[in-house]
Amino acid sequence: MFPIILGTAKFGTYTNKDDSFAVLDAFLEMGGSRLDTANNYACWHPDGKGDESETVLGQWLQGKDRKRVEVMTKIGAQSVDGFTYDKLDGLSPDNIKRSLDKTLTRLNTDYLDVLYAHVDDLNVPLLDTWKTLSSLVDEGIVRQLGISNYKESRVLELVDVIEQHQLRPFDYAQYRYSIISPNAGADFGPQVILNEHLFGALKRLAVKPEIIGYSPLLDGCYEFSADDLPENYDNLLNCAMLDDIQAQAEGNGSTPSALVLKTIADYGITPVTAASTPERLKSNLQLLLPI
Hints:
- InterPro entries: AKR_Detox_Biosynth, Aldo/ket_reductase_CS, NAD(P)_OxRdtase_dom_sf, NADP_OxRdtase_dom.
- Pfam families: Aldo_ket_red.
- By secondary structure, the chain is α/β, with parallel strands linked by helices.
- It has a single domain, classed as NADP-dependent oxidoreductase domain (TIM Barrel, Alpha-Beta Barrel).
- Helices cover 38% and strands 14% of the residues.
- It has an 8-stranded parallel barrel, surrounded by 4 helices.
- The protein is globular, with a radius of gyration of 19 Å.
- The two termini are 16 Å apart.
- The relative contact order is 0.13.
């Protein structure tokens, strides 16, 4: 299987349509097939509404063999007020169905390869959410299910619900992850950090989901000075680790980003990584592809 999933969160906002198409074409030419998006990407852009990524992907898919591409998208994390993550549209059965209809229209497809519950919804019983999602698999509209940003206790509770009611399992579990750890108490809103304890719990599950890590490159910070680390990661240990990563990369003739992605993949986590140009994508993947 191709060692990464292409993240498309910035397509249609930070990355224009033509450049997005170029990256997507390059990804396919390199042998990739799995594309990660969501129905709220990229709502954090100053001009973003949250449907831009799916829209660009849908336009690109019109000229492609749909069977060559695996589309992985997410629902349930649309901001109700359009500005904050204090209240999200959630994972009620009605919202799942409404969101899915809009997503399929934007993507110009009649099925999804993977549908994620984007953020855990504590206001809706897990049984209600998972019955609805399972029914979409039964109907053939969705092929596989995933969870994203579920805390360990809720993952275990969901596994029990799935077993008790013989519902469809989740085949993917996606979390924020990079090889340097954030500061204690760092606030990422609804995003859940994949730490060692959670990783171990996921590995012990009978369902054995593929573990996915998003934001592995921290917006390119591994290429810059330790002085430019994001605030949530700015500490002396991480500064030292960054210097070491950059020295290792220089020693083996790669980029720091390429070394980070290979390290994560070798650890057993599939990175979701983005790029704004084909050249940057190839550079980032230089240690993961055949010579």
